C-alpha cells in the first residue's frame, strides 16, 4: 500500500494522508511523498511529529503533522499547518537495512 493514513474510529472512515501508493523514496508534502513499506509509527508526546521506519527504503523518516483538529463543517480531521511534510532523517548510508520497530 505504501502510504500512511488516519482511521476515524467513530465512523470507520480511513483517509490516506501520506504517500502516493507506489514503492519509491522521495520527501515532500502529503500524498506527493513516496514510501516503501512504512512501519512502526510513533508519535512525539505533543502529537505534532510522527517518526516511522520506511523499511524497504532503509530509512527512518518523519512526518510533521502540526495539530490535528476537526473541521466544524464536515467533522473530518484537518491539520492546522495545511500540509503534512515528510522528511528523511536517516538512510542506508547511516547503516540502516530494512528497519522495523522492536
Characteristic key phrases:
mainly beta; two-stranded antiparallel sheet; 102 residues; five-stranded antiparallel β-sheet; 9 strands
Would you kindly provide a written description of the structure presented here, covering whatever features stand out?
The chain is mainly beta and 102 residues long. The protein has no helices and nine strands. The protein has strands spanning 4-8, 13-18, 28-29, 38-43, 49-54, 59-64, 68-70, 77-79, 85-90. A hairpin with a 4-residue loop joins β1 and β2 (13-18). The chain is elongated and about 45 Å long.
- Biggest sheet: strands side by side, in what order? 3-9-6-5-4
Shape: elongated
What is the N-to-C order of secondary-structure elements (H for helix, E for strand)? Answer: EEEEEEEEE
Enumerate the spans where pLDDT stays under 50 for 5 or more consecutive residues: none
Share of residues in strands:
35-45%
Q: What percent of residues adopt helix (DSSP H or I)?
A: under 10%
**Total helix count?**
0
Could you describe the largest sheet, including whether it forms a barrel?
Answer: 5 strands, antiparallel
Give the averaged pLDDT, no decimals: 77
Beta strands, count:
9
User: What is the rounded Rg?
Assistant: 14 Å
The rounded distance between the terminal residues' Cα atoms is 22 Å
Q: Helix- and strand-based class?
A: mainly beta
